[in-house]
Amino acid sequence: MGSGKSTVGALLAERLGVPYRDSDADIVAAQGREIADLFVDEGEPYFRALEREAVAAAVAAHTGVLALGGGAVLDEGTRGLLAGLPVVYLSMDVEEAVRRVGLGAARPLLAVNPRRQWRELMDARRPLYTEVARVVVATDDRTPEEVAQAVLDALELKDV
Ligand SMILES: Nc1ncnc2c1ncn2[C@@H]1O[C@H](COP(=O)(O)OP(=O)(O)O)[C@@H](O)[C@H]1O
Ligand SMILES: O=C(O)C1=C[C@@H](OP(=O)(O)O)[C@@H](O)[C@H](O)C1
Ligand SMILES: [Mg+2]
Predict the structure, then answer these.
(1) Fewer Cβ in 10 A, N or C end of the chain?
(2) pLDDT value at position 16?
(3) What is the DSSP letter of 138?
(4) Burial letters 40-76, b for 16+ CB under 10 A, else e
(5) Ligand 2 pocket, 70 CB below 6 A?
(6) ipTM of the modeled complex
């Protein structure tokens, strides 16, 4: 959360001249409800199933850049959908995470004690990010434009 997947994903799509999608935005559009409301009212397993469906739909129909939610890798089915694709893990340290996401209610998983919650989440997720990712790109002390360039370099892609 807050590593810049949505921001950098959109920039990257622009640089590559391809469409951009975001699984969170696709879920909100399909459900007509905000992510935080789905999480709180329906629970995380329900949200992860919606997310798996959104990723499956995008993987089947979308040619371009797809930004995922930070917890998408927790679902085994979603990880399976990502197998063999050029997945990018955008990393950052905890202080950068708190600066970027802060106490925003839009990200319910970091709402109470962001530093501790972020560390716990990352201990559980880091192995999964590493498992699905083709490349890892550090985002600390880089602008979104610099991160997008680093992704192009890491994947050996040329812009338009
Ligand atoms: N490289 C960056 N440097 C500084 N701020 C950034 C960077 N990338 C994203 N941000 C900011 O951090 C916040 C979270 O970005 P976002 O793209 O929504 O992350 P994600 O989709 O990974 O949760 C936004 O306010 C965004 O403007
Ligand atoms: O890390 C997570 O579990 C989540 C990350 C969010 O997306 P971003 O990573 O784009 O903030 C969003 O999918 C939801 O709040 C859950
Ligand atoms: Mg996002």
Answers:
(1) C
(2) 96
(3) E
(4) eeeeeeebbebbbbbbeebeeeeeebbbbbbbbbbbe
(5) yes
(6) 0.98
